[in-house]
Amino acid sequence: xxxxxxxxxxxxxxxxxxxxxxxxxxxxxxxxxxxxxxxxxxxxxxxxxxxxxxxxxxxxxx
Length: 62
Prior knowledge:
The structure is a single chain. The chain is α+β, with helices and mostly antiparallel strands. A 3-stranded antiparallel beta sheet has the order 1-3-2, covered by helices on one side. The longest helix has 16 residues. 3% of the residues are buried. This is DUF4177 domain-containing protein.
């Protein structure tokens, strides 16, 4: 059975260069196998929710 792990990243976005920093951080996470599930816009930026398949097997699934 596949298992997943999750992470949350927050980005403060006020200027165009902030989007570049956000893109760079998400690309770095993508290279580690993370995938953005969703992103929510807030008053001061974005919160992104990520997941990737866990290397750990669930107990009893072997």
